[in-house]
Amino acid sequence: MTAPKQTSSQRDQPFPPLARLLIRVCCCQLLITLIPTTNPLRGQGVPQNQTAIGQRAPDFELPLVGEKNYLSLRDEYHDGPVVVIVLRGYPGYQCPICKSQFNAVVNRAKALSSETKCVVLVYPDKTDQIEKNAKRFIGSRKLPHPIRLVRDDDMQMVTEWGIRWQARNQTAYPATFIVDQNGRVAWKKVSGSSAGRSTVEEILRELRKL
User: Fold this and answer.
1) By residue range, what is the domain housing residue 105?
2) Prior bond to 4 cis, omega within 30?
3) b/e per residue, 60-72, with b = 16+ CB within 10 A?
4) Structural domains in the chain (count)
5) Cβ–Cβ contacts within 10 Å for residue 131, how many?
6) Is residue 66 part of a domain?
7) CATH number at residue 167
């Protein structure tokens, strides 16, 4: 008995419909496994217990650089939204990207003062030279209103906020938080490296939304 002859259309299709469907499903599954995680910071070691948007910001009371007074976050946000910018402090050197961000914030102090009464720059360090290092970081610049610089001597603040950088010779992941008048985080930007900082324009834009 001779086998039935195939038509030309059947010869042009190397796989039957069911096989083609299975191939498509397998390809889709492969693509899903190759897509990066939705959190771009996870693979870079940023802690997952960060203070989240909508959560109450952990209070802190930190010493002001060059002063004998302390700054309490709770006291500040009662008067309006507060911007908290966490620098890398002194990971063995003065970070040039931190310095650039600091200069940008100071240069736009007037614009920031129209949207907030307090911009807190946090300088973390794990050495007993933190006050000296923080003063060197400021240099000869004066801190105009509403800019304040505080020290995080024992890394407690950056640990509680979930941005402690545990790698060797590191301190904290650079981060910016906007805390609203109810003490909750309204916006944040956390970098997984020493770069990727918030800009003044980003901060102003988010403050104007409140």
Assistant:
1) 44-207
2) no
3) bebbbbeeeeebe
4) 1
5) 15
6) yes
7) 3.40.30.10
Q: What is the DSSP letter of 185?
A: E
List all residues 6 or more positions away from 176 whose beta carbon is below 8 Å from its beta carbon: 83, 84, 85, 86, 188, 189, 190, 197, 198, 202, 203
Q: In this structure, which amino acid lies at residue 89? A: G
In a domain, 18, yes or no: no
Residue 116 resides in a domain: yes
Give kind and range of the element (H or E) at residue 119.
strand 118-124
Tens of pLDDT, residue by residue, the chain (210 residues): 454 554 444 445 455 665 555 556 444 454 333 333 333 333 345 666 789 999 999 999 999 999 999 999 999 999 999 999 999 999 999 999 999 999 999 999 999 999 999 999 999 998 889 999 999 999 999 999 999 999 999 899 999 999 999 998 899 999 999 999 999 999 999 999 999 999 999 999 999 999
Query: What tokens were used for 26?
Result: 């397998």
